[in-house]
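Q: I'm writing up a methods section and want to include an example of the input and output format. Could you take the sequence below and give the corresponding predicted C-alpha coordinates, formatted cleanly so I can copy it straight into the document?
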Amino acid sequence: MTQHDSRATALVVVAHHRTDSLTAHTARRAAARLEAVGYRVDLLDLHAEGFDPRMNVADQPDWGDREKRYSDEVHAHMRRILDADAVVAVFPVYWQSVPAILKGWIDRVWNYGLAYGRSKPRLAGKRILWLGLAGATADDPVVEGMRTVLETNLSEGIAYYCGFSHSTVGLLTDAEERPQRVDAEGNLLVGDAVTGAEREAQYADFDRRAEQFVEKFVAEETAAI
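A: Here is the clean output for your methods example:
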Protein backbone atom coordinates (compact mmCIF):
# COMPACT_ATOMS: atom_id res chain seq x y z
CA MET A 1 0.00 0.00 0.00
CA THR A 2 1.21 3.47 -0.82
CA GLN A 3 2.45 5.43 2.18
CA HIS A 4 -0.26 7.88 3.27
CA ASP A 5 0.43 11.58 3.62
CA SER A 6 2.18 11.83 6.99
CA ARG A 7 0.36 15.08 7.77
CA ALA A 8 -3.02 13.35 7.91
CA THR A 9 -4.53 12.69 11.34
CA ALA A 10 -6.95 9.98 12.39
CA LEU A 11 -9.01 10.36 15.55
CA VAL A 12 -9.63 6.85 16.92
CA VAL A 13 -12.48 6.91 19.43
CA VAL A 14 -12.88 4.01 21.86
CA ALA A 15 -16.22 3.51 23.60
CA HIS A 16 -15.73 0.74 26.16
CA HIS A 17 -15.30 0.76 29.93
CA ARG A 18 -12.56 -1.92 30.01
CA THR A 19 -9.08 -1.49 28.59
CA ASP A 20 -8.73 -5.29 28.36
CA SER A 21 -11.86 -5.66 26.21
CA LEU A 22 -11.94 -6.90 22.64
CA THR A 23 -13.21 -3.44 21.69
CA ALA A 24 -10.12 -1.74 23.17
CA HIS A 25 -7.89 -4.37 21.55
CA THR A 26 -9.52 -3.72 18.18
CA ALA A 27 -9.08 0.03 18.59
CA ARG A 28 -5.39 -0.38 19.38
CA ARG A 29 -4.87 -2.58 16.32
CA ALA A 30 -6.74 -0.10 14.13
CA ALA A 31 -4.58 2.73 15.47
CA ALA A 32 -1.41 0.71 14.82
CA ARG A 33 -2.48 -0.01 11.24
CA LEU A 34 -3.28 3.64 10.61
CA GLU A 35 0.11 4.68 12.00
CA ALA A 36 1.80 2.08 9.79
CA VAL A 37 0.47 3.78 6.65
CA GLY A 38 1.45 7.28 7.76
CA TYR A 39 -1.36 8.69 9.87
CA ARG A 40 -0.78 10.59 13.06
CA VAL A 41 -3.22 8.93 15.48
CA ASP A 42 -5.07 10.73 18.25
CA LEU A 43 -6.47 7.96 20.47
CA LEU A 44 -9.55 9.10 22.41
CA ASP A 45 -10.66 6.63 25.09
CA LEU A 46 -13.92 8.17 26.27
CA HIS A 47 -14.09 6.22 29.53
CA ALA A 48 -10.41 6.60 30.41
CA GLU A 49 -10.60 10.35 29.82
CA GLY A 50 -13.72 10.62 31.98
CA PHE A 51 -16.02 12.06 29.32
CA ASP A 52 -19.51 12.77 30.66
CA PRO A 53 -22.09 11.82 28.00
CA ARG A 54 -24.97 13.61 29.73
CA MET A 55 -26.29 16.75 28.07
CA ASN A 56 -26.18 19.89 30.20
CA VAL A 57 -27.26 23.52 29.96
CA ALA A 58 -23.81 24.74 28.88
CA ASP A 59 -23.80 22.42 25.87
CA GLN A 60 -27.45 22.63 24.92
CA PRO A 61 -27.80 24.03 21.39
CA ASP A 62 -29.02 27.61 21.08
CA TRP A 63 -30.92 27.73 17.80
CA GLY A 64 -30.62 31.52 17.77
CA ASP A 65 -26.83 31.52 18.17
CA ARG A 66 -24.72 29.13 16.16
CA GLU A 67 -21.61 30.83 17.56
CA LYS A 68 -22.53 29.84 21.12
CA ARG A 69 -19.52 29.17 23.33
CA TYR A 70 -19.98 25.68 24.69
CA SER A 71 -18.18 24.20 27.69
CA ASP A 72 -14.39 24.02 27.70
CA GLU A 73 -14.59 20.22 27.69
CA VAL A 74 -16.72 20.16 24.57
CA HIS A 75 -14.58 22.74 22.77
CA ALA A 76 -11.49 20.64 23.49
CA HIS A 77 -13.19 17.65 21.89
CA MET A 78 -14.37 19.77 18.97
CA ARG A 79 -10.79 20.81 18.35
CA ARG A 80 -9.68 17.17 18.22
CA ILE A 81 -12.32 16.41 15.59
CA LEU A 82 -11.45 19.52 13.56
CA ASP A 83 -7.78 18.55 13.64
CA ALA A 84 -8.56 15.09 12.25
CA ASP A 85 -8.90 14.17 8.60
CA ALA A 86 -10.60 10.89 9.46
CA VAL A 87 -12.47 9.48 12.46
CA VAL A 88 -12.59 5.81 13.44
CA ALA A 89 -15.12 4.95 16.16
CA VAL A 90 -14.76 1.53 17.79
CA PHE A 91 -17.58 0.30 20.00
CA PRO A 92 -19.66 -2.69 21.12
CA VAL A 93 -23.09 -2.84 19.52
CA TYR A 94 -25.77 -2.35 22.18
CA TRP A 95 -29.39 -2.85 21.10
CA GLN A 96 -28.39 -2.40 17.46
CA SER A 97 -26.90 1.00 18.29
CA VAL A 98 -23.88 2.62 19.91
CA PRO A 99 -23.21 2.69 23.69
CA ALA A 100 -24.52 5.64 25.68
CA ILE A 101 -21.07 7.19 26.10
CA LEU A 102 -20.51 7.35 22.34
CA LYS A 103 -24.01 8.67 21.66
CA GLY A 104 -23.53 11.27 24.39
CA TRP A 105 -20.20 12.31 22.86
CA ILE A 106 -21.97 12.87 19.55
CA ASP A 107 -24.88 14.68 21.25
CA ARG A 108 -22.63 17.09 23.16
CA VAL A 109 -19.70 17.54 20.78
CA TRP A 110 -21.16 17.24 17.29
CA ASN A 111 -23.17 20.30 18.13
CA TYR A 112 -25.05 23.12 16.43
CA GLY A 113 -22.65 25.49 14.71
CA LEU A 114 -19.97 22.80 14.36
CA ALA A 115 -21.46 19.66 12.89
CA TYR A 116 -24.62 21.23 11.53
CA GLY A 117 -26.41 24.57 11.32
CA ARG A 118 -24.19 26.10 8.61
CA SER A 119 -24.42 26.03 4.83
CA LYS A 120 -21.13 24.15 5.02
CA PRO A 121 -20.62 22.23 8.28
CA ARG A 122 -17.15 22.50 9.80
CA LEU A 123 -16.92 18.70 9.60
CA ALA A 124 -17.55 18.76 5.84
CA GLY A 125 -15.17 16.60 3.84
CA LYS A 126 -14.05 14.39 6.72
CA ARG A 127 -14.41 10.60 6.57
CA ILE A 128 -15.53 8.19 9.26
CA LEU A 129 -15.34 4.45 9.87
CA TRP A 130 -17.67 2.93 12.46
CA LEU A 131 -16.32 -0.40 13.76
CA GLY A 132 -19.08 -2.12 15.71
CA LEU A 133 -18.45 -5.35 17.61
CA ALA A 134 -21.46 -7.65 17.86
CA GLY A 135 -21.91 -10.85 19.84
CA ALA A 136 -24.20 -12.35 17.18
CA THR A 137 -22.75 -15.02 14.94
CA ALA A 138 -22.24 -14.25 11.26
CA ASP A 139 -25.03 -16.66 10.23
CA ASP A 140 -27.59 -15.24 12.66
CA PRO A 141 -30.58 -13.83 10.68
CA VAL A 142 -30.56 -10.77 12.96
CA VAL A 143 -27.25 -9.60 11.51
CA GLU A 144 -28.66 -8.32 8.21
CA GLY A 145 -31.18 -6.13 9.99
CA MET A 146 -28.56 -5.00 12.50
CA ARG A 147 -26.27 -3.87 9.71
CA THR A 148 -29.11 -1.99 8.00
CA VAL A 149 -30.11 -0.23 11.23
CA LEU A 150 -26.52 0.80 11.97
CA GLU A 151 -25.88 2.08 8.45
CA THR A 152 -29.14 4.04 8.42
CA ASN A 153 -28.56 5.55 11.86
CA LEU A 154 -24.83 6.20 11.71
CA SER A 155 -24.13 6.91 8.04
CA GLU A 156 -27.38 8.56 6.98
CA GLY A 157 -28.76 9.92 10.24
CA ILE A 158 -25.50 11.26 11.69
CA ALA A 159 -22.48 11.37 9.35
CA TYR A 160 -24.29 12.54 6.24
CA TYR A 161 -26.28 15.10 8.23
CA CYS A 162 -23.02 16.47 9.64
CA GLY A 163 -21.32 16.84 6.27
CA PHE A 164 -18.94 13.87 6.28
CA SER A 165 -17.93 13.05 2.73
CA HIS A 166 -17.83 9.32 3.41
CA SER A 167 -19.14 7.03 6.15
CA THR A 168 -18.61 3.27 6.40
CA VAL A 169 -20.02 0.85 8.95
CA GLY A 170 -17.87 -2.19 9.63
CA LEU A 171 -19.93 -4.76 11.54
CA LEU A 172 -17.71 -7.31 13.28
CA THR A 173 -19.75 -10.36 14.27
CA ASP A 174 -18.66 -13.27 16.48
CA ALA A 175 -17.20 -10.96 19.12
CA GLU A 176 -18.17 -13.28 21.99
CA GLU A 177 -16.15 -16.34 22.93
CA ARG A 178 -19.47 -18.13 23.53
CA PRO A 179 -21.57 -18.08 20.34
CA GLN A 180 -25.04 -16.68 20.88
CA ARG A 181 -28.20 -16.20 18.86
CA VAL A 182 -31.92 -15.70 19.39
CA ASP A 183 -34.29 -18.40 18.19
CA ALA A 184 -37.72 -17.92 16.58
CA GLU A 185 -39.38 -17.81 20.01
CA GLY A 186 -37.08 -15.08 21.28
CA ASN A 187 -34.93 -17.34 23.45
CA LEU A 188 -31.25 -16.50 23.73
CA LEU A 189 -29.18 -19.56 22.86
CA VAL A 190 -25.64 -19.45 24.22
CA GLY A 191 -23.18 -22.08 23.05
CA ASP A 192 -20.07 -23.47 24.71
CA ALA A 193 -17.02 -21.26 24.96
CA VAL A 194 -14.41 -21.89 22.32
CA THR A 195 -11.00 -22.85 23.66
CA GLY A 196 -7.50 -23.68 22.58
CA ALA A 197 -6.68 -23.66 18.88
CA GLU A 198 -10.30 -22.96 17.94
CA ARG A 199 -10.32 -19.85 20.12
CA GLU A 200 -7.04 -18.64 18.64
CA ALA A 201 -8.37 -19.19 15.13
CA GLN A 202 -11.61 -17.33 15.91
CA TYR A 203 -9.85 -14.25 17.20
CA ALA A 204 -7.21 -14.34 14.48
CA ASP A 205 -10.07 -14.25 11.97
CA PHE A 206 -11.71 -11.44 13.94
CA ASP A 207 -8.51 -9.39 13.82
CA ARG A 208 -8.19 -10.07 10.10
CA ARG A 209 -11.73 -8.87 9.40
CA ALA A 210 -11.22 -5.73 11.48
CA GLU A 211 -8.00 -4.94 9.66
CA GLN A 212 -9.71 -5.43 6.30
CA PHE A 213 -12.23 -2.73 7.18
CA VAL A 214 -9.41 -0.35 8.10
CA GLU A 215 -7.40 -1.21 4.98
CA LYS A 216 -10.40 -0.64 2.73
CA PHE A 217 -11.21 2.64 4.47
CA VAL A 218 -7.66 3.89 3.92
CA ALA A 219 -7.57 2.65 0.32
CA GLU A 220 -10.83 4.44 -0.50
CA GLU A 221 -9.46 7.70 0.87
CA THR A 222 -6.23 7.33 -1.08
CA ALA A 223 -8.21 6.72 -4.26
CA ALA A 224 -10.31 9.82 -3.63
CA ILE A 225 -7.31 12.15 -3.30
